[in-house]
Amino acid sequence: MSVEHPANDALRIAALIPYYNHPLRIGDVVAGALAEQLPVLIVNDGSDAESSAVLAELVKQPSVTVLNRAENGGKGAAMLDGLNALANDGYSHALQIDADGQHNVADIGRCLQLVRSHPGAIVSAAAEYDESISKARFYGHYLTHVWVWINTLSLQIRDSQTGFRAYPLALTQPIIQHAYIGKRMDFDSEILVRHQWEGVPIVHFSTFVNYPENGVSHFNMVADNVRITAMHTRLFFGMLLRFPKLFARMLQRNFGSGQNSSGQKK
Fold first, then answer.
1. What is the pLDDT of residues 102-153, one digit of tens each?
2. What phi and psi, each to the nearest 5 degrees, are found at residue 251?
3. Which of 16, 148, 222, 255 is an S-S bond match for 94, by CB 3.0 to 4.6 Å?
4. Residue whose C-alpha is closest to residue 28's, from 123, 95, 130, 97
5. Residue-wise pLDDT tens digits, 11-64
6. How many independent structural domains does the chain possess?
């Protein structure tokens, strides 16, 4: 995929927050984005009346906009609507950060620095966990990482499930317009794999992730695990179709002339 990347002075970056019934933490997330002078788009994915009322207060602040979906369609559906809305409004990048407050908003500035130095890349957080993460969640994340490495023939993606990353919209829009992307909890991993297939660089930064005791999770252990399994299966067959290109890229990355395994010139 070849797209001319905008110069730094042409970058227009907005925060994109998918939101579904997270009234306790959304204010802190919005404040973190506004502290970095980012306009904020919250996509309300069919939240209940109480949770939507919180947004009615937040939207009174300058630079905060709410896009309301009539029905809950899932995190991926909210993200796709938000990405399309920001692209249509002329933004060059969308900085996604989830509404549940698990991510360290103090690292938004670090993410923005990397966006400005790598405008043609996805800039993605790589989570560092503390003891608040359950063993089931930890090993579930690791299993998904393994499948992502298989489906990309690469270790380039360090964390495919984080909801804290920035998308270069000129590169993301063709992908979401021409490929099926999961609409629920399968979104975060699938869209990153599809960017990697297209050769979009992925730049990581480490960030602390906390799962508070009173935190609200909308992950459905049965339905979402079925969707994620279907996603990995779908991506596996997609990898097989792209195997010659991905395998050649892997060889070039590891044994390319004049480069070491990290892609740096010798």
1. 899 999 999 999 999 999 999 999 988 766 665 666 656 677 888 899 999 9
2. -65, -40
3. 16
4. 97
5. 999 999 999 999 999 999 999 999 999 999 999 999 999 999 999 999 999 999
6. 1
Query: 122: domain CATH number?
Result: 3.90.550.10
Asked whether the beta carbons of 94 and 169 are under 8 A apart, the reply is: yes
Query: Which secondary structure element, helix H or strand E, spans residue 147, and what is its range?
Result: helix 135-152
pTM: 0.84
Q: Can you say whether the dihedral through the CA atoms of 101, 105, 106, 111 is positive or negative?
A: positive
Q: Decide if 170 is inside a domain.
A: yes
CA 70 – CA 61 distance, rounded (Å)? 23
Strand bridging mode 40-45 / 64-69: parallel
In the block, tokens 């001319």 appear at 4
Burial class of residue 221, CB neighbours in 10 A (0-12, 13-18, 19+): exposed
H or E, element range at 126:
strand 122-129
Range of the domain at 148: 9-255
Distance, in Å, from the CA atom of 82 to the CA atom of 97, rounded to the nearest integer, reads: 12
